[in-house]
Amino acid sequence: xxxxxxxxKSRTAVAPLERMKILLQVQNHHNIKYNxxxxxxxYIWRSEGFRGLFKGNGTNCARIVPNxxxxxxxxxxxxxxxxxxxRQQTGNEDAQLTPLLxxxxxxxxxxxxxxxxxxxxxxxxxxxxxxxxxxxQYKGMVDALSTVLREEGFRALYKGWLPSVIGVVxxxxxNFAVYESLKDWLIKTRPFGLVEDTDxxxxxxxxxxxxxxxxGQTVAYPLDVIRRRMQMVGWNHASSVVxxxxxxxxxxxxxxxxxxxxxxxxxxxxxxxxxxxxPNSVKVVPSIAIAFVTYEVVKDVLGVEMRISD
Length: 310
Description:
310 residues, mainly alpha, Mitochondrial carrier fold, globular, mitochondrion inner membrane, MCP_dom_sf, membrane, repeat
């Protein structure tokens, strides 16, 4: 219960940045309303008020708890299976996971968790993009899910799933791999006197988590932009932020992931693939660092001996 409350509070604290990121990712390049993080937050405050900063946060909080639970559980199980197979193949019962194997375990965990909660993420994106000028307002997660099912069919709940899966591999995989590899390197080399024994300090582990978050989200970010844009395709009541007009069908239609990449780069340039990276970095890097450290601390408190690196 405490972990769930902590996750909800942390997500709520950065909700304005999360909404700003998504709005920057999907806004129509012919109708620019948000020119940056600060200007965009001020615009939302003026046009939608305080509540506008937190639009979509309820759905995000409902999604993040099962997503995190499934992700960490899946990582533990995938790590055990991969390690067992690796030891059998090498004949070394003392062998440990290599960075590449950790990357694979992390990727498996990310794909499973993302797929299990993807419909919630899809409607969360649409609720987040809604503005006061949208012709139809989703009343919440349940209303959004039922409306999408009724108007667009079940498959619509998984629009953008493919780039999400592809993005999860470097994102979650690199998060786990970089975090664990950095910890191992610090313990073995003890550079600059930062590590005195095999038990890293909370500050050092936070730094490892921050580095992991930076690498993972930078590599995978273009796929996140494409995912969000594909989620908006076919939305009959799209926000004017997306359409560039007063609602209606999304102006740019994508036939698939490759087509979305091609049209985005052709129409807006390569930099469009990193729209919203600044607010995303501000919230993601520290949150990933805290998530890893909290996970390990809780396991220590509960007396669970096996760590992620095992």
